């Protein structure tokens, strides 16, 4: 009696209970300790951590063990769903900032030709090297007016 891949924990437990019932009908009843051992040994390898933990607890009933296994299955399926949602959210976030590689429809604001941006424009780059184009930064000049000739109290203030 082994758990097949793709079978849910609840259907596997139902199969075990059905087997125990059939054995009880033919007067070959299975004790709780034996049923727990059969259940733990029949689980697939993805439950190996839970099997180890549950096998260390001696005073646990079969029903408590079943409840723990069902809870573990629920937790793992929720984790798997959560990971897929996080992965899709991450994909959509990174996709949002992904630059498009087809630049055939883009028009340069510098030379007005299609296929590149002003940042990548070769004409602009040549003009910058020749000194024809000033970079895009803005220069700010501060001008200081001389104090009022009449000697007013506002003479310490400067206008921009």
TrEMBL record:
Species name: Taxus chinensis
Record's compositionally biased regions (Basic and acidic residues): 75-84
InterPro entries the UniProt entry points to: Znf_CCHC_sf
Gene Ontology MF terms: nucleic acid binding; zinc ion binding
Name of the protein in question: CCHC-type domain-containing protein
N-terminal signal peptide: none
Region (Disordered) location: 75-95
Annotated Pfam families: Retrotran_gag_2
